[in-house]
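User: Continuing from earlier, I have the next pair ready.

Assistant: Great, send them over.

User: Here they are, in order.

Assistant: Folding the first of the pair now:
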Amino acid sequence: MDLPTIWFVLIAVLWVGYFVLEGYDFGVGMLVGILGRKNNDRRVLINTIGPLWDGNEVWLLTAGGAIFAAFPEWYATLFSGLYLPLLLILIALILRGVAFEYRAKRDSAAWRRGWDFCIIFGSFVPALVWGIGFANFVRGLPITTQTTETGLFKGWVMQGNVENFFGLFMPFALLGGVLTVVLFLFHGAVFVTFKTKDEMRERAQAFANRIGIVTIVVMAGWTLWMAGAYGKPANWVLAVLAILAVVGAWLLNRVGRDGLAFASTAASIVFLFVGIFVALYPYVMKSSLGEQFSMTAAQAASSDKVLQIMSVAALVAVPVVIAYQAWSFWVFRKRLSVKNLPVEQPEAEGVH
C-alpha cells in the first residue's frame, strides 16, 4: 500500500477505537437518566467511567489531529463545511466533561440535577450527530471543486445553502443516527452490567435485554441498506458480522456472560465502522453532486515526507496509548455497588 492508503487505514483505526471506547461512555451517560433513580445510583453509574472517559476522548483528538496533518484538504473541507454540527458536538462534550467534575461541588439536589442533565445531553447529542454524520459520509455530501480565474484547480468546497443543510437529514442518515444512539445505549448497558453488582447490575442487565432487541433490528436495517445502496461486496460480509455480533451480545447478556457480551458489543461497533470506511474508500469525502467532485485519499494527502515522519511518530505513540488504556482497565477492573460508596458528602460525590 502507498502512504496515503496506509494513513487512511490508520485514521480508520483511530475512529473505530474512539467509538468502541467512547461508545460505552456515551451509553453510560445516557443511562444516568434511565437507570439513575436515586443520587447514589447516578454516582455508581458515573463512577464506572470516572477513571476512563477522559482517556477515551484522546482517540478523538488523535483522529482529528491525524486528519489535519495527513489529509489537510480533507480536514479543511470537512471542518468548514460541517462547522455547525461539529460545533454542537464540541459544546456537548465540553458540557459533559465539566458536569463530571462539578456535579459534586455543592450539596444541592437542584445543582446535581442540572449537571446530570448536562451529562445526558452531552452523551446523547454526540452519539446522534456522529451517526448522522458518518451516514452522510457514506451517502455523499454536496462537495464541488473550485478553480482560479485562470482555470487552475484550487480545491474543494462544500455547498452550504439551506437546502443542502436539510439534505443531511435524509432517512438513511437519520436511521444512522438512531443506530449509533441505540447501539451505544446497548454497549453502555452491557458495560454497566460488567462493572457493577447487586441491584444496579440487575437493572442494567434487564435494560440491555430490552434495548438489545431494538439494536438488532436497527443494525440489520441500516447495515444492509448501506451495503445494498452504497457499499462494496465486502460490506455485505461486514454487515452480517455486525448483526451477528449484536445478536451474540444480546444472548450472552441474557445468560449473564458480562465480559463476553461487552466484547461482542465492541465487535459490533468495529464491524459497523470498518464497513463505513470500506464503503468510503478510495474517497475520503464522497460528493453527492457527481463522482468527479469526490476527494480521494491520494488527492487529499500531504507530501510523502510528511507522511513518513508521521509514520515514525505513530509507531512510537500508538502502542503507548494502547498500553495506557489496557492498564487503566486493569487497575479499575473491580465491580462497583451502592454499598461501596463513601458517606454522601459533596467532596466525595464526584467522579472517583
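And the other member of the pair:
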Amino acid sequence: MADLRQLLSQGRKRIGLLVGAGAPLAIRTDGSGKLDDEGTPLISGVDDLTSKAVAALSGTEASAVAAIIKSLEEDPNVESVNIETILSRVRLLQSALGSSEVNGLDSVGHEGVGKNICAAIGTLVGAYLPKDRCAYNEIVSWISGTQRPHPIEVFTTNYDLLFEEAFEAAHAPYYDGFSGSYEPFFDPATVSGDELPARWSRLWKIHGSLGWKLSENGVIRSGGRYENQLVYPDHLKYDLTQKQPYSSLFERLKSFLLTPDTLLLTTGFSFRDSHICAVLDEALAMNSNSSVFAFQYGSLDVEESAVQMAYSRPNFSVFASDGAVINGVKAKWQLGPPPKNWLEIRATFWENHNDDDSGYFILGDFVKFCRFCALSQSVDFEINSTTQVATEADEATD
C-alpha cells in the first residue's frame, strides 16, 4: 500500500482503471438525491436490476418471461437466474422459432421482449450524480490533479454517464473515441493512437453507453440518455464485441496492457465477463512488465473468479477483504508494526472491527478506493470517527 500510494501520487507511471457495475452500487442516496449510507444504491445490482426489468413487462410478454424464468430455475445447468440468463434464453427463442409460438410468442414476439427488457435496463441505469460530491468526483480530482506524462485511461463496462458528468463538472478534458459536435462519430483510428495531450484522460465504454445510437455511417453519440445501443448481457455479447466500435475498444484495452511498465487497477468488477478476462489473460501472458491489481469487495472465497486468474498469472494480484493473492500465493492479511506516521494512512485502506483487534481491507469498496486515490497526494492526515480529512503539511512525512 505504501508503494501504491507513492505511485498514485507521483503521476509518472502509466495507470489505467477498469470499473465495473459495483462502482455505482457502492454509492447510496436518500429520496432527495443526497448521499446517505443507509439509502438506496445509485444504480441497482444485478438481482434488483433483473426484478425491475422483468416487472416493466406486461401482458403476454410478462407471462412468457415468467415461463422462461421457471424453466431456468428447473435447469440444473443454469447456475443463477438473472437478466443475463433471461436475455440469453429470449434471444435463443428469437433466433430459433420463426413463425412457431412458445408461451404465446413467435420469433418476432421474443424480439420485442428483448427490446423491451433492454429499454428497461437503459432507463434503470440512467442515474445522475448525487447532489453532494461523491466517489466519482474524488477519483476525477485525483486524475486531473497531477501533471502526467501519460494519460489516465478509464475502461468501464457500465452504460451510465456518471464518469462523463464528473469529468465535466471538474472541467477536466477527456476523450471517449468520438469526434465532432453535431453528431459526434466514433473514430477507431484515434482510439488506437496517442496523439492527444496527456492531460486529456481517456474514457473507454467497452460495453457501449447511454446516448449511443446507430446511423447509416456507424455509431454516433446523441448527447442524451435516450439512445441505448449497448452490449447487453446475453449470449450474443462475445459476437457483438467483435464489431465496431467494440472491437477497437477491446483492442485498446489489450494494447494498454501490452505497453511496458503499465498498471491496471480494477474496482467494482467481478471477473465473470469471460471476453474481458480473455483479453486480460492474453495481454498479461505476453507482457510480464504490466500488472493488474484487482480490488475486490468480498472475501477470497467469494471472489473465486479473480482468485483463479491470479493463480495463473503472477502479474495479476487480488486484494480482497480478508486476504490477497500476490505472485500466485494466497494468504490472509496480517498487520505488522506500522512505520512512522503510518496509522493515519492505514485508516484509508483498513478498517478495524469494533470487538477485537482484527479488521478487513476496504479498498474493494469503490467509495473507499476513490478516497484512497484522492488522498494519495496529501501528506498529513487527521482522522476522526466519521471522516478522513487531509491537509497539506509544511514538509513531507517519512
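Worth noting for the second one:
Residues 107-124 form the longest helix (18 residues). The CA atoms of residues 213 and 219 lie 6 Å apart.
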